[in-house]
Amino acid sequence: MTAPGVPAPRPFARLERTARGLLSANAAPVFVVLIVIYAVASLMLSRTGQGIDVSSVLVRSVGLGIVAAGQTLVILAGSIDLSVAFLISVSATYASFIMQGDPTKQVLGVGVVVVIGLLVGLVNGLVITKLHVNAFIATLGMGFILSGVLNASFNDFAGAVPPEFQDAVAYGSIGGVATPILLLLLVFTLVWVLLRFTPLGHHIYAVGGSAETARLSGVRSDRTVIAAHVLCSLAAVIAGLFIVARIRAGAPWIGPDSHYDLESIAAVVVGGTALSGGRGGVWGTLAGVVILAILDSIFNSLQLNEFLQNVARGVIIIGAVGIYAYRERRVLR
Amino acid sequence: MQSPPMADPLPASSGASPPAPATSEAEAAAGPAAPPGPGAEPLLRMQGISKSFFGVPVLQDVDFDLRRGEVHAVLGENGAGKSTLMKILSGAYHPDAGTIQLDGVQVTFGHPRDAQRTGISIIYQEFNLLPERTVAQNIFLGREPLRGPLVDEGAMERDTAALIAQVDPKGVIRPDQLVKRLSLAQQQTVEIAKALSFDARVLVMDEPTAALSPHEVAALFERVRFLRKQGLGIIYISHRLREIFELAQRVTVLKDGRRVTTLDVEGSTTGQLVRLMVGRELEHYFPAHATPAELGDVRLRVRDGSVTNRLTGIDLEVRAGEIVGIGGLAGSGRTGLAQALFGVRPFNGGSVEVDGKPVRIGGPRTAVRRSMGFLTEDRKAEGLVLTLSVQDNSLLALRGLGRLLRGRPPVPISVHDLVRGVDLRAASLEQEVRYLSGGNQQKVVLAKWLAVRSRVLIFDEPTRGIDVGAKAGIHELMRELARQGAAILMISSELPELIGMSDRIVVMRNGSIAGELPASATEAQVMFVATGEKETAAAA
Amino acid sequence: MSAAASEPAMAAGSAPTVVDLPVRERLWRSLRSAGPIFLVLAALIVAIYAKQPHYNFVSMLKSGAPLAILAAGQLFVIVSGEVDLSVGSLITVTVSLAASIIKGDPGLMLATMGILVLLGLGVGLINGVVTTRLGVPSFVTTLGMLLILVGAIGYITGGSPIGNLTDNFRVFGRESFNGVPIIGQLPFSVVILAVVAGLTWWLMHRTNYGRQLFAVGGNARAAELAGVNVAVVRTIAFVLSALAAVLAGILLGGFAGVSAQVGKGFEFQAITAVVIGGGVLGGGRGSVATAIAGALTLQALFVLLNVLGQPQPIRDTVQGLIVIGAVAYASYRLRRSR
After folding, report:
1. How far apart are CA A226 and CA A125, in angstroms?
2. How far apart are the CA of C202 and the nearest CA of chain B, in angstroms?
3. Mutating which of C156, C324, C335, C336 best tests the A interface, going by the most A Cβ atoms within 10 A?
4. How many Å apart are CA B487 and CA B352, to the nearest integer?
5. A332 inside 8 A of chain B by CB
6. B367-413: per-residue pLDDT in tens?
7. Is B287:B474 a contact under the CB 8 Å cutoff?
8. Are strands B44-53 and B56-66 parallel, antiparallel or unpaired?
9. Which residues are bridge partners to B515 per DSSP?
10. With contacts defined as CB-CB under 8 Å, which chain C residues touch A308?
11. 8 Å CB contact of A151 and C332
């Protein structure tokens, strides 16, 4: 990524930098967990004569993954976003309502929900930074507000997205790879590049690490937090568009019923990002999302009780974060 | 701060006098060293700076100027307004009134970023580095070099290496190291490199030597002198008068938010500066040492105490009525010893006895039950609950011992007597302790331990961050507690305090006890044992 | 507040070191610090009365009791510096489990109650121990617990609650003392709320435990070094919150009946109630009276919107605006007083 011909301080420094960027040391354990779970799952499934269908696991991960990528940004910046679940509903429902199955209205539909998303993120960021409202409360309140507006406007599936939109976003494939997977990887790569190689990314880590230090170093902390929230809301909107492309029409309950707010936060922390901000990375989040998806896959394939799946999720979330906390304490000693 | 109003010996320090005569007086006193001739426009000129917080004036009509190639010291007690003045200079605060000129051009700063862009750089007392980020990422935070839309990490690390080489040629700091893996002195090197990377014309250093060993201080001074020769203006804030005489050309004294005067360092004396700063001659007599008759039985005894990777072979005895000082450089294990005794990071080898009975202290709760008390170095982070009242803080340890469902503290106690005993000045018992001065906060911490009748008290830097005027009060209290039979361990980096207060001095080095000195020891002797080097001792 | 301004005067200080405030001054201060939420509540009640003079405010108290009890429990967790997201699902579990144990047999009522209390103790203990001993942030611990509870009850009941509650179980949420002067009926749930309010007020504001709780939330490190058993103090807070959730579940089972949705959203409502009652996420500040007032304010708000004929979803929007507004106002006051 850096200029050729630059005398590097040490040989392979550039390679090292890239490697460090990909696999931050803090996130290492999550990949171990991922591999273990993958192995256990394969073993369990092989008895039934099935394997893990990686691509179906990934497709299942797309909606949650995209929100979680955005959630990673706000959590790294020391904030949190509980409004994403309702924003997903807003995005999906308004998109299908505006498009009404008409291919010529795709741009309009997407444009409107993107603008809504930008506004929601902006308001979240402004309320947190300018009115000094705790991020938990600010975005919880925003979630309530969106929920009220949405439920007052719609009480069932609204409109439909055209088949063209469904094919392009959710069911197509490019070069043999399913578009959902490409979309997922695209979002994660963009967020990774943002965090690793742009000033905004560096500032997000700085503000999450210490807002005061960042400010005294000349970073505009408020703008950084606002930008993180705008991007997170944008991610929620994209997730909503993807989901509506899968199911054809949006309804007010699709976001909250799948607990995208809490699950995205869970994926981020399972991926090794500290809830207090400043430490972690987006590939860990992807691993977290995939771990949760493999779990789904096991329960579905083995036809185990779907409710036990929630129990297993709860245990894995607590267990993973418990392991990180233990490692952190041991390093301190 | 609490000193009764005294007849003021110096007209210059009477706060109400208008600043203009003070300036002329100072410049008259400055003599030949400071000819404010034409063309000698100062590098920086702050004029009539005022700032209030919630109606309380913190700075009133302060003037300050800085020349190129000069180290200008700013001196004043805690609360005199030094930090606020520097935060205004750095753009972290906006002044209510007054102007700042840089090279004769008026500037206003809306954000620290603006000040940095005009070449004003500040190294704060608490380091402003992010432990989870690399050296290069820290140095270029907020103005990362770009290649297109992306950060040019190669250029960033290259420039970092060059900057660090400039500050610390022999150093081993790599640009891609995480800051959390660096020592304190290395972190300061990074801070200085960061400050220089702004193409600074004005460099402010706020108590830069607080965490450094004598060696590191000497190296730092060399760097400061080098920068001065490059034509930088350097503002140097310190309590340590010796450093000011060694390094600075001029000194500005602040008191109660006003500028008292600006003097040439050459020709002024320590006594004069202290008088200006405190408003009276500071003749700090330490209370008398313990007489043999006042010493009782051994209250605290440690035999061969050790903590893996931190402490080894600690043998220590403290008698009732005795104050034992713990000396040593930062990082020598002094605080580690205090933490081991109090069970924060307990001993995992050796034995501890309190009042002749063997005890095993595995955590602070046990320590409190064994009637030990620990006054930590960082009062706000570890000693007090800032959102609670004087009363609740004073009773906290006692309540920790009590049954959970009891309404009253486990023993009848008068909080009034308690706070009177430590001579606390507060508006009421309901006042939240965050509104108290440093000295009064320390008294609340002490009251907390007196409430549980602690017989072994560990003071870690008991007067750090406390005004010169209030220090004597804390010292008197400590001695009084010893006279009443407490055994006191006192960690101190301030040699006059260590020597003035201790009946015996135990000096630590590299996690073990390097030697013991009597009350009559000199500063040079302490430094000799602390460093294990004769040269350093001679220099000190 | 004037405390900051008084420091210079104090520093110039003279003979008296510390004075006690006169009782009237103390009362005035506590009123001023607690004031706004009571004013808002009073305004809402006046508005409801103006619109519908015959509205039965006792029934508002009755239906607000579960949330108020839940808020009182959540308050302990929030003051200690943590948060409890598992209470909503615990309510659901309470109701569903009670129904599936009792299965219409009145003789099992007491045994069921006993099991429910044990359930609350267990959930609270696990939340507390995992948070304090394993160092998992309580947001994550209780989120995990939420999933575990939802999954476990789904597994036990197969998705939709089975069995039904007996009248002697539902009496707590449903019945009233009759013939009470002035108000006529006095619902049991209101009496239970009053008892809970009194007990939690005493525990939080009048005991060693309460003072230690505020210390732990204000500065856990300082509290620990003062010999406070931080882990125990916080764990008790989680247990109280879980017990409050069980009690709220018993009342809701009484007048709302059995459903898998009964506890849905209650965790956020409880947090909202505490926060608009002046509790601060992050710990160290809050009071039982204002937290309960916060819960009743929410309830009064819902009643008012109902009386005004607003559609149900608007409740959410108004609740969102109010919680943001309340916290913005509180943080503005806190900054100004600094």
Report:
1. 4
2. 9
3. C324
4. 14
5. no
6. 999 999 999 988 888 999 998 999 999 999 999 888 888 777 767 77
7. no
8. antiparallel
9. B507
10. 151, 155
11. no
* Lowest mean per-residue pLDDT among A304-308, B399-403, C22-26, C319-323: C22-26
- Percent of the residues in chain A that have a pLDDT greater than 70, as a whole number: 89
Q: Which residues pair with B458 in a beta bridge?
A: B374, B489
Retrieve residue B536's tokens. Answer: 């350093």
Which ipTM did the prediction report?
0.85
Highest mean pLDDT among B429-443, C147-161, C227-241: C227-241
In chain B, which residues have their Cβ closer than 8 Å to the Cβ of A205?
A: 130, 132-133, 137
pLDDT at A257 over 60: yes
Range ranked top by mean pLDDT from B281-285, C32-36, C124-128? C124-128
Is the CB of A138 less than 8 angstroms away from the CB of C327?
yes
Q: Which amino acid is at C201?
A: W
Name chain A contacts of C275, Cβ cutoff 8 Å. Answer: 134, 137
Q: Work out the burial of residue C153: count CB atoms within 10 Å of its CB; fewer than 13 is exposed, 13-18 middle, 19 or more buried.
A: buried
What's the pLDDT at C154?
87
Beta bridge partners of B178: B134
Q: CA triplet A238, A241, A242: central angle to 5 degrees? A: 90
Q: What is the pLDDT of residues A82-117, one digit of tens each?
A: 999 999 999 999 999 999 999 999 999 999 999 999
Contact A216, B92 (CB under 8 A): yes
Q: CB distance C130–A318 less than 8 Å?
A: yes
Contacting residues of A for C282, CB less than 8 Å apart: 134
Mutate to test the interface with B, among A18, A20, A213, A324 (most CBs of B within 10 A): A213
Minimal-distance CA residue of chain B relative to A7: B158
Report CB contact under 8 Å: A137, C137. no
Task: Compute the nearest-CA separation of C25 from chain A (Å).
Answer: 30
Which residues on C lie below 8 Å from B410 (Cβ)? 208
